[in-house]
Fold this sequence. Notes:
The chain is mainly alpha-helical and about 280 residues long. Helices cover about 75% and strands about 0% of the residues. The protein has a single domain (about 60-275), classed as MetI-like (MetI-like fold, Orthogonal Bundle).
Amino acid sequence: MVKKVLPIVYKIFQYLVCIFLTIMCILPFLIMVVNSTRSSGEIESHAISLIPSSYFMNNLAILNDKSFNAMTGFFNSAIISVGVTACTVYFSTMTAFAIVAYDWKLRNAFFSMIMCVLMIPATVTSIGFYKFMYSIGMTNNFAALILPSIAAPSTVFFMRQFMLSSLPMEILQSARIDGAGEFRIFNQIALPMMKPAMATQAIFAFVQSWNNLFLPMILLTDKTKYTMPIMVSQLSGDIYRTEYGAVYLGLLLTVLPLFAIYFLLSKYIIAGVALGGVKE
C-alpha cells in the first residue's frame, strides 16, 4: 500500500512545486500591470495589490506631460535591437561554422582567444569604446550600438557547442561534391539546421539590447534618439513627488515587445528540443 501511495505523493509534490514556481514568475509581471492602473497614493499605501484601479489614463497623461514619447522610444529601441540581434546571430553563427566545419591550424587557438575575450567585462572597455566612438564622430549614431554586436563571444560559444552535436559534416561534404559554394552551403544548409539555437540566441540578444541602458545613455545625447530604457530612467518625477503609476506604465510599455519576441520565436526552441529528443 505504501509503495502505491509514495509515487502519487511525489507526483503531487512535483505539481505543487511547479505551480509555486509559476506563480513566483508571473506575480512580478502581474503586479507591474496592476500598478500601471493605480495612482501613486494607492501604490504608496498598498505596494502589492492584484486588483486593478482606474488611473490608467491618468498615468498615460502623466507620461505625455513628462515628454515620454513611447512611439519614438519604441522606434529607436526597435532599430537598435533588431540590428543587434541580426548581426549577433548571423555573424556569430558564421564564426562558429568556420570553427567547426573547417580544419585549419590555428582553429583551437582562435577559439581560445574568443573565450578569453568572453571573460573580459564589457564595462572595463566602455571608457575606451566611448573615446573611440567620439574620436570618429559616431556618437548619437545607432551604428555605434549595432556594429559592435558582430563580435559576440558568448553567442559564438553557444553556436559552436550546438553545431558539434547537430551539424552533420557528411551533408556539407556532399554539397561541396555537388559544386555548392561555401556561402551557399552556410546560408542554405547550415543556417536552417541551426534555427533552434539561433532562435534561442536571438531572444537573448534582443532582450539584452532592448534593456541596455548604460551604453545608449553615454552615446546618445539627442533626445529624439533616446531608447525606451533611457526614457523610463528619466521618469523619476519632480523633486517632491514621484509618479509611481506612470513609472510602472512606462516599464509595462518597455516589457511588452519582449513578450512578443519570445512568443514569436519560442516555437523554434520547442521544435529544436523535440528534434533533439528523437535524434538517434
